[in-house]
Amino acid sequence: MMERLCALAFVAMMITLSCAHYTSPLNAFQMRNLRHEPKDDVTLTASPQLLKKSGDWLILKYGNARPTDSDWIGVYSPANVDFAKTSPVKYQWANYSPNYNITGSGFLNISLVNMHADVVFALFTNGTSNPVFLGKSNVVTFANLEEPLQGHISFTGKDRQIRVAWVTGYKAGSQYIQYGVSPGNYTHKVIAVSDTYIAAELCGSPAKDFGWKDPGLLHNVVLAGLAPNLRYYYRYGSDGVSGWSEESSFVGPKVPHPTQKIHFIAFGDMGKADVDNTLEHWEELPSLQTCKHMIENAGDLDFVLHIGDIAYAVGYSAQWDQFMEQIKPIASRVPYMTCPGNHERDYPDSGSVFNGTDSGGECGVPYERRFRMPLPGIDKPWFSFNNGPVHFVLMSTEHEFNVGSEQYHWIEADLKKVDREKTPWVIFSGHRPMYIDSDSFVGEASDQVVAVMLRDAYDEMFVKYGVDLAFWGHHHSYQRSCPVYKGKCQAVGSAPVHVVIGMAGMGLSQNLETTNPEWLVYVDDQEYGYTTVTANSTHIHMKYFGNESGLKDEFTLSKE
Length: 560
Hints:
Layout: H1 2-17, E1 35-36, E2 43-47, E3 50-51, E4 57-63, E5 72-76, E6 90-93, H2 100-103, E7 105-111, E8 120-125, E9 132-136, E10 141-142, E11 149-154, E12 162-168, E13 176-180, E14 188-191, E15 193-195, E16 217-223, E17 231-237, E18 248-251, E19 262-267, H3 285-297, E20 303-307, H4 318-331, E21 336-339, H5 342-345, H6 365-370, E22 383-387, E23 390-394, H7 406-416, E24 425-429, H8 447-464, E25 469-472, E26 478-485, E27 488-489, E28 497-501, E29 520-524, E30 529-535, E31 539-546, E32 550-558
Helix pairs in contact: 3-4
């Protein structure tokens, strides 16, 4: 019991005190220390044994003649993995079920994402540092292990195009998109490009070992020549063993033009959580609420902008499957645009500018393969795109960005060629903030040290090329600046407004400075939420909503 309480307290402390350096609870599972002591009087029964679709629920019943506080249940996929070499997909303490410690009997209601492999449940005792295997359940599987899942769409950086991506098992065969302009009437069919990634492509632990789970086949199709503002209906899959996905739809992307009005949601640092309350990660339950609000607004959105710290998988591959299914109801309907954060990329000696272990050894590979942004090259996750009256530029704060770097030159060249007749507004985004109210001053990757680096490189560039608005994440709060240049407020329209929007789901960063910086207009470190942005040729209107309290801040930028 003490081990369990200490582990939970440590995670809570890390969430409260730091916006960057998390340790996944799955790191606590030292499966290399596993001992096998199976007991005949330990039982686990999962039913039903065959699930119809991803996300279905089952009941796990279990019994143990010698129950203790240190007993826990691991969920493993595929079912034949070596428990001594693999962390669970997710887990729960056995005494989460009432009266387990008294009766030795318990049950859990569990929702399972189809990861294109079967599933088994195992009961362990003696905590997570030196676990002892007691017994396992029957195998549970899905009616279709090749089912096409995780559908999501994105812009390609070119006008009138949308990219559609999804995942299947390896036996799915050739995959296709069918689409048309009326429900169920698919007049076009395009074959997908398919690939995957393997553990050897990753750069460290746990991603390469205890956290590894095969991702399946990743498919994508680019749909070109789309009519702006016209709704398209589509499905993905094949007539073969995979079958077809359910139908979804999207609206053809708006071309760059000042007469177009756009509306989008923006945030950072969301993560994921499970509806069955399994403790597979940091219990980012607010992420479910943020997703709920996005889905409610989907009919009026042009796209979503998620600026870093995407799934917080940090080396545990199955967490990507869980995250992609969580965002599917919104990401299959509107383009889901992203840039990387420290938890997607950073690892020592891997090419990241900061040498922390925040990616858990992933080093950007799962992120880039799943979210195919219009990048200039592999592991060069900076890009731009146009939508309506706005030119968007996204950088990677996890790669070299100082003056003279490849990324720096790319950003300046991109800003130089913006056509203000077509896109009068420029919005810039990156993960680590350029302006930040935080008491984190110590260390090369601390909030304030990195902010100075970014200001030294880009303060003058942003003013020179007329960047209007800049979004940042990393610090799990909402913060808005005045129009600011070199730390001083400027006349409206002469410098960009900087907004930190890292409050979408991961534990809040409540480490503000004792005295607010003079450039700070509004700050909230007490509530999770999201922002909406509306832009036309003359105005940008931004709103910040708390997930529980509603509208909390809003402002308007004008070119009139």
